[in-house]
Amino acid sequence: MSEQQPSERPNAVSNSSVLSAYDDHVMPIWKSLNVPVKRAAGCTLEDFDGNEYLDVFSGISVVNVGHGNEAVVEAAKAQLDEFVHGCSYVHPNEPVADLAARIAEITPGDLEKTFFCNSGTEAVEGAIKLARKYTGSKEVVALEMGFHGRTLGSLALTGNNSYKKGMAPTLNDVAHTAPPYGYRCARCDGDQCDASCADELERVIGSHTSGDIAAVVVEPVMGEAGIVVPPEGWLERVQEITHDHDALLVVDEVQTGYGRTGELFASNHFDVEPDIVTQAKGIANGLPLGAFTASKEIADAFESGDHLSTFGGNPVACAAALATIDELEGGIVEHAREQGEWLATELQALEDEFDVVGQTRGLGLMWGVELVDPEETGPQNVSPRPDSELAAAVSKRLREESNVVMGVGGYYKNVMRFQPPLTITRSELERAVSELRTALEHLN
Ligand code: PMP
Hints:
Bound molecules: 4'-deoxy-4'-aminopyridoxal-5'-phosphate
Number of domains: 2
CATH superfamily of the largest domain: Type I PLP-dependent aspartate aminotransferase-like (Major domain)
Number of helices: 12
Order of helices and strands: HEEEHHHEHEHEHEHEEEHHEEEHEEEH
CATH class of the largest domain: Alpha Beta
Strand content: 15-25%
CATH topology of the largest domain: Aspartate Aminotransferase, domain 2
Distance between the termini: 54 Å
CATH architecture of the largest domain: 3-Layer(aba) Sandwich
Helix content: 25-40%
Strand order of the largest sheet: 4-10-9-8-7-5-6
Structural class: alpha/beta
Largest sheet: 7 strands, mixed
């Protein structure tokens, strides 16, 4: 058969044919970051028209050990040949057994038992059910600006109205406390927060709840809020207040887990021992898997039939997760930590150089670059006004002129997000930073 050029092929797939099918038949997508993907390897995405992009967003912080990681692909293929599905809660299988044991080893503290589901939001909702069952209490406190998912339970915890418009009512009895967002902290008048800002939790429990709390749910580093890293002692104080109220500390590591912050779990950066850790995103390098892990005592509050998921703990996804953890422990977490240190210095240079860069912050390979209008005062009448238009323009330019895919996030949608595959090379990172500098120069 003679080879046809792509354009001569009948019904040739192109970016526009895929996008048009999406328009017709897929419910709305996130239009602002719209790069069709045909295939991907390492940190490179290829679209249907043959264009290549440097991916510094990892499919929203998921492919931590790189697109197409060989060990992960091989592990998944081997399990596909064995069997694909039996429902892991009906047919106990080796990948689930091995992965649960492995997670007990690698999670912080003495967490021992895991429930497997399919996504982050399910992990958060399952964790709330477990906390309710264990404590006998119902109410939950989460952080303003925090993100925990979009199903109706997790959406109630998500501390950002923009995700809730037209969706209420969500889960009842959720109160919100102030996040450790030093750049715009209401409590400390715009100065850098310190651990005492966590005392707001005590006030919120006192004034917005019955005092009978099942759980306080926090992201150790807030992802969707714009990469917010708490100050020293803040998370420790949150843990103390939570336990004073006989509630469980649920640490949502959906975005921060599996090496993202230069530790296997971000909780390891702090002196805390979470009661429940939620996981998803990076756990299986892109295969759908979520999980929450608790101590034996807490986990045993669930009796048979209390919680179940048909697809949860899919053996192929669990086999991929085991290979992902091997890869992470085989040097990738360390690599992320080292590259992150270099990136921190480079981003600080951008902050010094450009007035529109209000603050850069992060850990490991999870970094945010907050863009502002330096001329105008912003929230709390202290910090410069957040500028979401600048961030949208920078992201668009990076994609269209530089073939770099960089996420935008933040409560005010004004934060550029560096969350590349943790395997990213120094030269790829250099390219991403240099293209970001060029995009910032073009704003003037
Ligand atoms: N928790 C956190 C901290 C997240 O960042 C996210 C996703 N951005 C979720 C929960 C929800 O995960 P999913 O989209 O897999 O439901």
